[in-house]
Amino acid sequence: MTDHILSVRDLKKHFVIGHEGTVNRKPITVKAVDGISFNLHAGETFGLVGESGSGKSTVAYITVGMYQPTEGAIYFRDQDLFADSKGRPLALKKEIQIVFQDPGSSLNPRRSIKQILELPLRIHQPDKDRLTEVLRLLEMVDLPPDYMHKYPQSLSGGEKQIVAIARALATDPSLVILDEPTSALDVSVQGKVINLLIRLQREFNLTFLFITHDLSLMRNVASRVAIMYLGKICEVAEAAEFFQNPQHPYTQMLLSSIPVVSEEEEAAKPEKIISTGEIPSPVNIPQGCSFHTRCPYAMDICKRVDPVMVETGAGHVARCHLFEQPEENLTQVLEAEPGPIPQSP
Amino acid sequence: MSTPRLLEIKDLRVEFKVYGGVLKVLDGVNFSVNAGEKVGLVGETGCGKTTTMKAILRILPIPPARIAGGEIFFKGQDILRMRKRDLSKVRGSGISMIFQDPTAALNPVFTIGEQLGAVVQHARPENRRLSKRKIRDKAIIPLKEVALADPERLLDSYPIQLSGGMRQRVCIGMALATDPELLIADEPGTSLDVTIQDQVLRLLRVLVEEKGTSVILITHTLGVVRETTDRVYVMYAGNMVEEAHTRKLFAEPLHPYTQGLMQAVPKLTGGGIAEGIPGRIPSYLDPPPGCRFHTRCPRVMDICRRQKPPFFKVDEEHQVACFLYDQNHDRHKEETATL
């Protein structure tokens, strides 16, 4: 057995959103996730970053089993998550839990906190005493025991999210997917929730798949980072390496677009790449490399051929033609003035 | 002060009547914008940023809202006591606003051209009688200014046909179409992705620079304020707590709330995340007496519980509403120690 707790292989998820034509009806598909692979090491925090529509949440939903993948597979400790056509066995469901972005809508407003926390216990640990377990969960996340009789509406946003975290931990999972857990919260509350997550990770040896669009936050929580653009992964690296030495032009553009609060951070950003163009619609993904419409270094080959993952350093991979070429061509391209991007025919 | 004040809010108090009592939301807000200046207003959800701005345009829902006191001067005239006709002039060509969510700000059943046309038509009295053709010609100008591709076609599109970034550009164009003297931008980039937010803010900066428009930028993202504004106000629970030149504030925040906020922002350079500020924003139904921040303040003194701190001037460009910066600070401290 490897130390990979989760292994994603060529995962694809295409949604059919309609049909075109009248006689030969062809389905119109959104390629939300289009062939991604990555591994999660046990005990790490793997960050998945991307802008809206990049497919990061779809990856999360497939992993917890809300969607079936169109192609590809996910292995949890060498066990295929989608092998059983009757659905995922309870023992596997217990291991993978999720915390959603908006605690306001992920907690049932008509259930008390006690009822909310009891549900996973009822299903996964029917033999245990539920009251003691609920109290243990509340204590674990530093909420006073009388909160068990409260309803979500009387809690603040941060507290609601903490309840959602407690609910995810109720089944004693080993992998928790955090889908933008602090995006709906204010910065002064975010710190508390993040530090709680880090503490719980240490205490229970959890592995996190941390999804966010906030790169500054990612810098502080993730051990490895992957960046997604239109359903594909562009770059994966160790967090420190990722932020100090970003390779993919999209990563550089993202990092240089972040508004920061101090001079030191300004210095840590890569050279400014002026962000241009719109994110293309996922229904109509550009040919070749999907980023070529916005890339300042776009070359001819980028419009025709989709690049493959290339290793650019230890544990650092990027999917860009710049790194596939022999050295001398590369320097030529980099020195060339980044001119306007010609329209594809 | 000799510089002309474009907008000046003095001791503004706004209350909301609700089932449980009266929410005392704005508790004596003082705020000003000079001509040609870009001012930031920072604060967390529910601190009264948007309420303040809505009071400026008099678009607060009254009731339940009630202006309990204060004055808002725009070019020397009190907006709160203005006649309808003068007010519509201010709204027409004096002050424009960009809202956080461009999807909600545009009407989904009218085309961009119809909506922009209406703005152009009603901005100035002399435009009222223009032909449709002429209005269309005028409406296309702001779309060109915000660098949208194919403006002709956009005029006939509905908001749903545009992306979020394009919609926000349309809103910016619409707000600037009337050549306002003051632009209020309420979280203009929050609903957009970082790369798109960067584009939109860059565009906004260029346009206001060109036209010499004054700007109030409301946001809870500190980084955006740092990159866009000249001067910043920090707001907490219906009070202004600190005012300074942008560079000064970010180099040396003074108010304990501002300091807590700055520390809580995750840094791109790493180093972990601060716990943030303990507790939560107080209820407006029964706000704490004295300084409204004292329940969460790590450096609270006895006087903070009794008395509301006024603005203390630290230097010409920096003032802060906190007794720590009072001349008599030592005395307050002793008092606290003896208790």
Task: Tell me what you see in this structure.
The complex is a heterodimer of chains A (345) and B (339). Helix content of chain A is 33%, strand content 24%. Chain A is of the alpha/beta class and 345 residues long. Chain A folds into two domains: 4-245, Rossmann fold (3-Layer(aba) Sandwich), CATH 3.40.50; 254-345, no CATH class. Chain A is globular, with a radius of gyration of 22 Å. Chain A starts with a strand and ends in a 10-residue tail after the last helix. Chain B is an alpha/beta fold and 339 residues long. Chain B starts with a strand and ends with a helix.
Distance between the termini of chain B: 41 Å
Separation of the first and last Cα atoms of chain A: 49 Å
Count of beta strands of chain A: 12
Number of helices of chain A: 13
- SSE-based structural type of chain A: alpha/beta
The gyration radius over C-alpha positions of chain A equals 22 Å
**CATH architecture label name of the largest domain in chain A:** 3-Layer(aba) Sandwich
Strand composition percent of chain A: 15-25%
Strand order of the largest sheet of chain B: 6-7-8-3-9-10-12-11
Structural class of chain B: alpha/beta
Helical amount of chain A = 25-40%
Q: Find the biggest chain interface.
A: A-B, 43 and 40 residues
CATH class category name of the largest domain in chain A: Alpha Beta
Radius of gyration of chain B: 22 Å
What oligomeric state do the depicted chains represent? heterodimer
Biggest sheet character of chain A: 8 strands, mixed
Order of helices and strands of chain B: EEEHEEHEHHHHHEHEHEEHHHEEH
User: Which strand order spans the largest sheet of chain A, edge to edge or round the barrel?
Assistant: 6-7-8-3-9-10-12-11
